[in-house]
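Tokens in:
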């Protein structure tokens, strides 16, 4: 499927401003600034398993089906319920304090999160 793969962060825009805006503690902001986060996506039709793997060995996994409410977790570890949608080939989710989209563009995973007028963009390259 289009999203299935393993991706590593290649570039980020507005990391500091965004994570401060959503309330991530400053010690975690500092640690995460230069992390090469790996994202693993398994897509089977409308079913997704979306995992973020951090260099510390920690990971966060969200399992969801497009159009159905699912239990999710934010970057900051908050649990919540959301209905993930597919709009124009983009995975779209409203987290408690930010709006998130993800798409495959030019073979790369492009994620955009918006909070408080700040747009955070993370581009990840596909690993072999």
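Residues out:
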């Amino acid at each position: 499927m289009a999203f299935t793969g393993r991706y590593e962060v290649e570039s980020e825009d507005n990391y500091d401003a965004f994570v401060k805006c959503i309330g991530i503690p400053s010690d975690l902001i500092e640690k995460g600034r230069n992390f090469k986060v790996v994202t693993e996506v398994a897509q089977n039709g409308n079913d997704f398993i979306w995992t973020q793997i951090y260099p510390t060995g920690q990971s966060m996994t969200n399992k969801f089906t497009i159009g159905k409410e699912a239990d999710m977790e934010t970057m900051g570890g908050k649990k919540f319920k959301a209905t993930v949608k597919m709009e124009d080939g983009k995975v779209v989710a409203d987290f408690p304090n930010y709006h998130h989209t993800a798409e495959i563009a030019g073979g790369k995973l492009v994620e955009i999160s918006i909070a408080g007028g700040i747009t955070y963009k993370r581009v990840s390259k596909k690993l072999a």
